[in-house]
Amino acid sequence: MTPPSSQTRRLILASASPRRRELIARLGIEPDAVAPADIDETPHKTEVPRAYATRMAREKAQAAADPSGHVLAGDTVVACGRRILPKAEDEATARECLELVSGRRHRVLSALALLSPDGTLRERLSETQVRFKRLSAEEIDAYIASDEWHGKAGGYAIQGRAEGLIAWIQGSHSGVVGLPLYETRALLKAAGFDIG
Questions:
Q1: What is the mean pLDDT of residues 65-72?
Q2: What is its EC number (predicted)?
Q3: Which of 31, 83, 151, 160 is most buried (most C-beta within 10 Å)?
Q4: Active site residue 75
Q5: Which of 40, 66, 75, 194 is catalytic?
Q6: DSSP alpha helices (H): ranges in the chain?
Q7: CATH class given for the domain over 6-190
């Protein structure tokens, strides 16, 4: 049986994130469907950030598995050392995260999993180093007031006001936003998608 051509391949994005849809559009790709995966995102006891990010992307892809298309899932984790910073859902958590990353380097791990209809799983991981300036209490207060931190891993969104507080970055800017484009393109090309 002849496999379908790259033009007929269906791509299902296992994420409700508008940022991921905007980023994948930069590769000239519009997902055929969006199927957010609802999984338990609690880290395992003693689980390190890299393993956690990879496991989350894999489990999201598997939860959204669809025999009619390739499922692309991703997960972005902000880590200080071995500590996985939470998604900030309240001001106290956002403030704690900002105080922790203030003036020091941290890592942003962005894992990808692409599950093919035949069950083949392809995975990639992007690791980016980020350093904030030393934040004053006033700068933290102003960022908290912006509400950009809400629901963001590590309590900040690099694509907003926080970018003006970041002194240094090494790695993938798009990975910090939530979808590392170099790795995404490589995965899709390996699966036979026609990307220029």
A1: 94
A2: 3.6.1.9
A3: 31
A4: yes
A5: 75
A6: 18-25, 49-63, 91-101, 137-146, 173-177, 181-190
A7: alpha beta
In order of 10, 25, 136, 146, 147, the CA distances from 157 in angstroms are 30, 19, 18, 11, 10
**What whole-number distance in Å separates Cα of residue 60 and Cα of residue 66?**
12
Structure tokens at 157: 């969104």
pLDDT digits (tens, 9 = 90+) for 80-118: 999 999 999 999 999 999 999 999 999 999 999 999 999
Place of tokens 């690099």: 158
Residue pair 165/143 in contact (Cβ under 8 Å)? The answer is yes
Distance separating alpha carbons of residues 79 and 86, to the nearest angstrom:
9
Whether 1 has a pLDDT exceeding 90, the answer reads no
Q: Which two tokens stand for residue 59?
A: 């489990």
Percent of the chain with pLDDT over 90: 90
Global pTM?
0.90
Place of tokens 């899709």: 188
> Please, is 40 exposed, middle or buried when counting C-beta atoms within 10 Å of its C-beta (0-12, 13-18, 19+)?
exposed
